[in-house]
Every structure is written in C-alpha cells, then in structure tokens.
Amino acid sequence: MKRLPPISDIITILIIIVGTLGLITFLSGIFTGTEAFFYISFIILLAGTIVIPIIERRKNKKQLKEISKVINDLGKKDFGEILAEDYPGELGLLTRSLNKVSTQLKEDLHDLQIRVIRRASEISMRNAELRKKQREILQQNHELKAAYEALKESREKYEKLIEHLEDEYFFYSKALNNTLLFVSPSVKKILGYEVKEYRKRHHEIYTSNPINELARQIEENLKNGVPQPKYIKEIFNSQGKEKILEVSEMPVFNDEGHLVSIEGLAHDITEKQKAEDLIKEQEEKYRMLFTYASDIIFLYTLDITNQKLGKIIDANNYTIDRLGYSIEELRKMSPADLLAEADVSENSSNLKELTASDAKFERIWKSKNDEHLDVEISIHAFQIKGREVAIAVARDITQRKRAEEEIRFVNEELINQKENLESLVDNLTETQEQLVQSEKMAALGQLIAGIAHEINTPLGAIKASIGNMLDSLNTALSELPDLFQKQSVENLNLFNIIFEQARQGKAELSSREKRQYRREMANKLNENHIPDAELVADALVYLELFSISNELLSSLQKTDALKVIRSARNFISILKNTNTINIAVEKATKVVFALKKYAHRDSLGEKVSTDLTDSIETVLTLYHNQLKQGIDIVRDYDKLPLVQCYQDEISQVWTNLLQNAIQAMHLEGKLTISAKQEGNFARISFKDTGPGIEPDILDRIFDPFFTTKKQGEGSGLGLDIVKKIVEKHNGIIEVDSKMGEGADFIIKLPMETENE
Amino acid sequence: MNEKNRKVIICIDDEAIILESLREQLEKHFGDAYHYEVAESAEEAFEIIDDLEDEEMDIAIIVCDWLMPGMKGDEFLLRIDLKYPRVVKVLLTGQADQKSVDKLEELADQFTLVPKPWNKDELINIINSGLKENE
C-alpha cells in the first residue's frame, strides 16, 4: 500500500521554509546593517511560528475527525467488517490497510501472548529459586556470625580460665630423682618463686605439718610407678608463708613400659582450705552449742501442704537427758508426741509447732518416765535441701512455773490475809469504840460507886438520927409530967444551965478533943464526989458542955445529976439530931447537884459556855469519898472567862485526869489543880505527887491501850480519850514528869467568844 | 456500976454525922451496960484501944466505916481480929461497888458487913448474935 506523506511533515517543511526565510532576512539584516531586514525577519518568523501552526492545526483537525470516525467505526465493529467500500477515497484505502494491519496484528499478538506467558513462567520459577538461595545465604551468614560470637566468647572464657588456672595451678614434670624437668611459670604467681628458684628449692620448702609425711609417702610410692590419689602438702612460699597444695601426680612410661618421669599438677587450695577450716570450726562451734546447750533443742520435719508435723530428726544432749528418750526413740516421734495429756486436747487443733514465729508459747510435755515439765518454746522454720524443717528451742520453765504458782498462791494468801486484816482492823476499830464506850461506862460505874457512898453516908446518918429523935422524944414526953410536977428548984436550975449552954453555938470538936474534955470532966466530977462521974461526963460532952463551971458543979452536987442531965439530953438530942439531918441533907444535896451537873446532857453535841473551874469542882465533889482518904487538893484558880466546850466531854477529861492522879498517888499525896489564862488559852494543870512517869514510856502514854496498870485494872484508853477530847476542842495536851516528883498534865484550851 | 466492969463499944467513921448518930443509936439501945468510944479514923481507934488496955477495959463491939482516910475499915478490923478475935466486928459500908462488896464478904468470918443506910434493928441483931456467940 502507498503511504501518504504525513501532514506534520508538510507543516515542518513549511516551518523550515518560513524559518529559513526568517533567518536569511535576519542575517541579511545583520550583514547589511539594515534594520528593515531585521523587522521583516521578525515578522516572517512570527508568521511562521504562529500563523502556520494555526493553519496546520485546522487542517489536522479535519483529518483527525475523519480518522477518529474510522477508528470509532472500527471500534464499533470487528476488523474486516468495515468495508473499504463504505469509505470513500483514501479512507477506503486506509481502511483496507488498517484491516490488513489489524489481521496481522491479531496474529502477532497471539504469538506474542504465547511467548510472553512462557517467558513469565520461566521468570517466576527462576525468581523462587533465587529467593530460596538468598534465604540460605542469610541463614549461613547468621550462623557464621553466632559461631564467631561463640568462639570469641569461649576464647575469652578460656583466656580467663587459663588466667585463673594460672592463679591456682602450676604444672611440672620431674625425674625419678626428684629433679624438676619442667615447671610452668605460674609457679611464680602461686608461690612467688621464679621457675629456676623453685626447681632448686622445691624439695626443701616443706613445712612441719604432719600431712607432709603422707605426702612424702605418696611421692615415694609414685616412684614405684603406682598411681596414687591426690594428696595434700603444705609448703612455704617465697615469703615464708604456708601454702597448701593439692597435688595430682601421674607416672609417665616410655614405649618400653619403663617409668621415666612423673607429671604433676599442683593446685593451690590454701584459701579454700582456710575457708573450709573456718566452716569446719564454726560448724564444730555450733554443733557444740547445739549439743551442750542447756535448753531442749531439736529439729523436726514439717509437712506444710498437709499441715502435719513430721518426725524429729536430731536432738541435743539436753533433750535426751531431760526427756529420757534416746535419740533413736526421738527419731520415731513427732513433737506432738511429747505433749502431756493435760496439754493435748487444748493444742492438738492448734499446732503452733507448724508455724515459725517470734512469739514464744508454752507447752506441758511428758518425759519418758511420765514426769511433766513446763516448757517455753520458740520455733524457727527453714529449708534444708528443699525439705521443710523446723528447729524447736524449748526452755524448761517447770521451776519457774512452780515458783509462779507459789507466788500466786502466796499472793492469794496475802490478799486473803490483807482482807482478814482489814476486817480485823474494822473489828478492832469497832471494838475500840466499844472499849472507849465501856471505859466511859467503867469510869461512870466507879463514879456511881463513889457517889453511892457519898449519898449512903448522909442517908445512914439521917436514918439513925430520925430513930434517935423518935426515941428521945418518946422518953422526953414520958418524963415530961414528972419533970413539970416533981422537979425541985435545983433540978430546974440545972436544966436551965444546961439548955443555956447547949443553945450557944459550939465550935466543932474532934472526937479526940471531946474525949479529952470528957476525961478532964470525969476527973473533976470524981474529985467532987459526984456519983456516976463517967456517965455524967459522957452526957455533958453530948450536951456539948466541955467545962464544968462552979455554978454547974454546985448544981450537980445538989441534985440527982445523972437523971436530970439525961432528961435534958433527950431534948438536946432532938436538936442535935435535927442538926445532923440538916448536915446530911446538905451533903447529899451537894452530891446530887454535882451529879446533875456532871451528867448534864441537855447540850449533848453542842458547845456551851463553860466555867472550867466549876466543872472541875463538880468532879472533885463526886470524887470526894476517894480524895478524902488521903489526898490534899490544892486549888490555884484564876478567874477564867467562860470557854466554849462540850461540857460532858470536858468533865470526862477532868474525871480521867483525876482518876489517874488518885491511882498514881495511891490515894495519898497532894494534887495541885491550877487554872490560868495564857494568851488566848485556858491552861489547866493537874499536878500530882505520885512516882512520876518513866521517861521511856512518856511518849506512849497517850497511845490507845497503853497502860501501866495491871491487866483488868485499866483499859489503857483513859488518856487516849482525854487526848481526843482535847483535840476535838482544838486544844493541846502535854505532860511534864520527873521521876520521884510526880506528873503534871497540862491542857490548853482555846478560849473562843460565844459569837465564834 | 463500976466503970471498969463495963465493956466497951467503939464506933469509927470519918463522918461526924455518922459517928454521932450511930453512937447515940447504940447508946439508946444498950444503955449503961457499955462504955462508948468514938474515933474518926482507924489510927485514932488504935489510940483508944491502947488507952483501954491501960485501963484494963475489954472491948466488946467495934462498928467501923469502911472507906476512910488512912487505914480502911476492912484492914483495921482484920488487925483487930488478930488481937481480939472475940470482939464483935461490924463493917459499915456505903459502897455500892459490887466487886468490893464481894471481896469484903469473903472475910465474913472476921467481921460482918452492914451496908449504909443501915437498919437499926438489923444492926442490933447482928451485934447481939455476935455477942451471944462470944459468950
């Protein structure tokens, strides 16, 4: 088929033409120097570059449209179906060509496709192979690297090992005559000797350690070609220090089987040996500690998973001694088997032996011969080669327990005793109160006895006097008519004289004086021959006529004196007895009044204004019957203001002091009672002339129950009561005493005004 | 009546009112059959007794108070009993202290205890029966 020149070629030719024209014009312009060329060239070039392409493009566009229509149709239909006749002119030619090309292309394409597929498959296979190969190489590379690393490491290790070995080992070879044939240089490191020096001296540096004997023996044996076990020798290093070497020596034989030399390897085990010795020593120490400790110590196994106690493994001597089991017996037992019955129930569910803790606990164990012992246990659990074991350390506290028990018992007893004592003290306090009360009652009883005497005496006098009066009156009355009718003048005269004298107040005369007068008068009457002189004198004394005047004497001489006098006596008797009754009543009244004052209870529990000397006097009155027996009371009273007192209690004070004084003086002596004002105090003192108080008991006399009197005579509470009463009044009691001179009890009571 | 034939009654009491009334009481009863002496203390009584011995007079009755200054009645009567066992001895006592009374009653062989205030007839009976015993 004929090919048309392409449209672009035409355009290119046009451009070249225009361009050439332009260039020529331009060059002409340059060569001629004419600007006109220059501008023309410019316009030509402009036209060429702008106008020609525009024209070209429009032409091309038209052609393109047609081509694209053909292609479009071709696209719609299969090649061949487009008939050349359908398209006019060139297009038809084109179409045919295209159809032809299309067919050819189809065939080529098919071939190509087959070839490409084949090729692709080949390439794919090759690729896979290559990848595999690559992986292998990578792997190899990796392995090589690791191997290298390992080698490097191992080399370092070996280097280190060698280095290390050189620190501990040296090799040698020796001839049978002990000459060293070879020594490795590490001998320097280990023993400090240069090889040469060591070779020279190796046989002379043994220490005196006995193990060297065995070493020499083995060395000798080796010379006989008998392999020997490793042995130990001790030698001095270059510094003279002991070094222990573990030596392995091997005999070396030649081809004929003759021993030629000995190869040796010496290992420095000095440090190791030292460490081992230390451990051994420590082990020994601990073993001793364990064996001879005076506590029960044993080891036992534990089954932690099942929470069970295992058997005892080991026990110290004390355990065996104390519990009485042999070690073999103990090894068949668990710690729980040691528990006494008393302890089993409580503890079987609560096996503290299973857990190690710092807390100690107590157990009651039973020895083989059933002796119970209290122990205080601590448990420490640990592992030995993976086995759970525990060590129990038990201290025998039986003695302590017993002591504790005893202490508790003693303590309880003490508490009991204390309680008893307390109740005893309570009882005593009560008893003391009772005693104080009974002491008061006793004092009162004594007082009453005294008072009874003081009242009974006037009563006796009154009773007798009344009887006498009645008697006298009866006689007088019966004699009265006779007296009035028959009396002579002389008799009446005598009567007068008697009555006159009798009515005159007479001084009180003692019985001794009266007796004296009676005797004198009886003598005088006898001298004057008056009959019944004794009786007349008696009667005259009764009539209180103590002297016989001449008038009386003559009157007596003239009459029946005795009869007349006795008649008169009846009348005088009434007078005298009346007088006696008066005196007696006065006495009794005084006592009753004093008693009333003493026992004044209206103001009980309240202080009242008290005249202290008055209250002392009252007590003296009540004690009159005792005092009169031989005690002089000397009163030295100042006028004291009234003092606020518990009256009955203050009377008690005087009573007790007075009683003490009376008893001290045995009813004979002088009691000086003084009452003075001393500042704001009333100072009352009872000073007796008794034997005094012994100095060594002076500070105890106020103590309750202290008494110098015989048992049963005094309660020992008198002065205690006094002291308490004085103190209740905020007063002070003191005693001043000199042996042989008596005692002086001084009481000082504060004087308060009534307002206070 | 011869003075020396009369026996003596002695009353002893430190209280004049007792001494006087007692003496009068006894004198009214026994009259001139006896000689009467009074003393205010045991010591004085001893003086009287000495005098009576000088005068060779016999003592028949002693009535004595117990509680007196100086020697007490019981001691006095015991002394008298040693020398004059045949004398009737009465101890008058005003003491109500039972303990003392019990103690004195133990000496009933030596003297008779009569409490104050005494009954005249009782006292006389005691004396009379005493006198009778001694006859």
Describe this protein with a few key phrases:
heterodimer, A: Beta-Lactamase, Beta-Lactamase, 5-stranded antiparallel β-sheet, B: 135 residues, alpha/beta, Rossmann fold, 5-stranded parallel β-sheet, 21% strand
Write structural notes for this entry:
- The complex is a heterodimer of chains A (756) and B (135).
- The model of chain A has no long low-confidence stretch (mean pLDDT 82).
- Helices cover 58% and strands 18% of the residues of chain A.
- Chain A is built from 20 helices and 17 strands.
- Chain A has helices spanning 7-32, 35-76, 89-168, 186-191, 195-201, 211-222, 270-292, 317-323, 327-331, 341-347, 398-486, 489-503, 511-527, 533-542, 550-558, 561-598, 612-622, 624-627, 647-664, 718-728; strands at 169-175, 180-183, 231-236, 242-253, 259-268, 296-303, 308-315, 357-366, 372-384, 387-396, 608-610, 631-637, 643-645, 669-678, 681-687, 732-738, 742-750.
- Chain A is α+β, with helices and mostly antiparallel strands.
- Chain A folds into five domains: 7-76; 163-269, 2-Layer Sandwich (Beta-Lactamase), CATH 3.30.450.20; 293-397, Beta-Lactamase (2-Layer Sandwich); 459-584, no CATH class; 600-750, Heat Shock Protein 90 (2-Layer Sandwich), CATH 3.30.565.10.
- Chain A has a five-stranded antiparallel beta sheet, sandwiched between helices. A five-stranded antiparallel beta sheet of chain A has the order 7-6-10-9-8, sandwiched between helices.
- In chain A, helix 12 runs parallel beside helix 16 (561-598) and helix 13 (511-527) packs across helix 14 (533-542).
- Chain B is α/β, with parallel strands linked by helices.
- Chain B has one domain (3-134): Response regulator (Rossmann fold, 3-Layer(aba) Sandwich).
- Chain B contains five helices and five strands; from the N terminus they run βαβαβαβαβα.
- Chain B has helices at 16-30, 42-54, 73-83, 98-105, 120-134; strands spanning 7-12, 34-39, 59-65, 88-93, 112-115.
- A five-stranded parallel beta sheet of chain B has the order 2-1-3-4-5, with helices on both faces.
- In chain B, strand 3, helix 3 (73-83) and strand 4 (88-93) form a beta-alpha-beta unit.
- Chain B is globular and about 40 Å long.
- Chain A binds chain B through residues 445-446, 448-449, 452-465, 467-468, 471-472, 508, 510-512, 514-515, 532, 534-535, 538, 542, 573, 576-577, 580, 583-584, 587, 625, 628-630, and chain B through 1, 3, 14-22, 24-25, 28, 32, 35-40, 44, 47-48, 67-70, 72, 92-97, 100, 115-120.
